[in-house]
Amino acid sequence: MQKSKLSWFLKLMLALSLAFLYIPLVVLVIYSFNESKLVTVWGGFSTKWYGALLENDTILEAAWLSLRIAVVSSLAAVVLGTLAAMRWRVSNAFAAARCLPV
């Protein structure tokens, strides 16, 4: 009897936590297709803002730069993590850098 009450409570908490995290994302995606310039006023369904985004060269350059930085940092993390996992004999500087807070 006690286990089913706890299980019900945990399922409810999980559902509420997921709703708290994902409902704002869904609302943001829905409002990204809003035709109106005002966020709170729905002006109809449109993709004109995505078209304007793809025409802006500055934003596209920034997105590509962010993607390149993400790829390089991911590769560096994989290499360093693999070397650390293989118990690579490292200098004290690398050992200290591993312990730094993110």
From TrEMBL:
Gene Ontology cellular component annotations, sorted alphabetically: plasma membrane
Transmembrane parts of this sequence: 12-33, 63-85
SUPFAM superfamilies membership: MetI-like
Keywords for the protein's UniProt record, in alphabetical order: Cell membrane, Membrane, Transmembrane, Transmembrane helix, Transport
Highest taxon listed in the record's lineage: Bacteria
Compartments it resides in: Cell membrane
Transmembrane helix as UniProt keyword: yes
Protein's membrane topology: Multi-pass membrane protein
UniProt similarity note: Belongs to the binding-protein-dependent transport system permease family. CysTW subfamily.
PANTHER family: PUTRESCINE TRANSPORT SYSTEM PERMEASE PROTEIN POTI
Protein name as it appears in the record: Putative spermidine/putrescine transport system permease
Species the sequence originates in: Neisseria gonorrhoeae
High-level lineage: Bacteria, Pseudomonadati, Pseudomonadota, Betaproteobacteria, Neisseriales
Primary gene name: ydcV_2
